[in-house]
Design goal:
Blueprint: H1 9-32, H2 40-48, H3 54-88, H4 101-115, H5 119-140, E1 142-143, E2 146-147, H6 149-171, H7 178-186, H8 197-213, H9 215-221, H10 225-230, H11 235-257, H12 263-275, H13 279-303, H14 312-336
Helix pairs in contact: 1-3, 1-13, 2-3, 3-8, 3-11, 3-12, 3-13, 4-5, 4-6, 4-7, 4-11, 5-6, 5-11, 8-11, 8-13, 9-13, 12-13, 12-14
Length: 337
Amino acid sequence: MAAVKRLSVTSYATRLVLFFIITCISIIIGLSSGPVKIGIGDLLATLFSNNANQTFSQIIFEIRLPRILYAIAVGGGLSIAGAVFQAILMNPLAEPYILGISSGGTFGAVLSFLIGASFIGTQLFSFTGAFIVMILVFFLGKRFGELEPNVLLLTGVMVGAFFSAAILLMMTLLNDSLRTAIFWLMGNLSIADKANLKFVLPITLIVSFILVLNSNKYNLLSLGADSAKQLGVNIKLFRNVTYVLTSLMIGALVSVSGIIGFVGLLIPHICRMIFGVDNRIVLPASFFLGASYLILCDTLARTIISPSELPVGAVTAILGAPVFVYLLRKRFNTNIG
């Protein structure tokens, strides 16, 4: 790991403010864009005036704002989860879905479609499926009583592959619910119920805050397990708590959005290229930039073929895949040079 420079309070606060401003700009773009264009003046009047245009008010508060808040929760949560998994697994290709948790959540969702459950039932099935896979991978990923990065990674891949096969098998049995299942697999914020924001958003914010508070321990962990132990980090407890907290957050996110790929893989890499390897900066940067990225991707998804819309997971994959390949080639060429 490259040397981590001393970080002053002023420098840290300045960067947090910058990240927050970027997210606010993305929110303004998301609120004003759509089939019905809303100018900045009308937007501000709707947000802060009691005599706002009722049509604009309904569009903003009933449709766009809930989706933007979901985008903040999902985009920010997946990005910070990706940064954390890359730190504890010491693998730059680790991402929130690689441990099979998303496959468990999707298995539960598709099972609920098969039996005709309500949307609330779908979310419950999805979260339960993600939780079961989390526990399964947790116990199978141990070696000598401790979570071992390579064992955990391979276990997650294999468990995820098993549940992915089960998902495909169940989809052959679906009829009317097939389109909903496909949208779930591709990731879509439009299927989320805004009433569940009070469940998903607090979980994401609380878990993300805990992860950021422990960001310096991820710096120590990247030095190697022995070095981290000598510096006072309880490796076993720290990895276990990180894995469980982050996995629960991912399970909650998958239960409302389906699988939205490349966010948790791409954004941490971009943050490291811009800000360096210090997790005290990378983690909060990943949250805010991931939230901004998904807000903009969702805005594009619901406007590019308006009045219809694309699954936001398709947009993140189309934009994210070539960018990630470029970043990998650039890093490889830099290392060779």
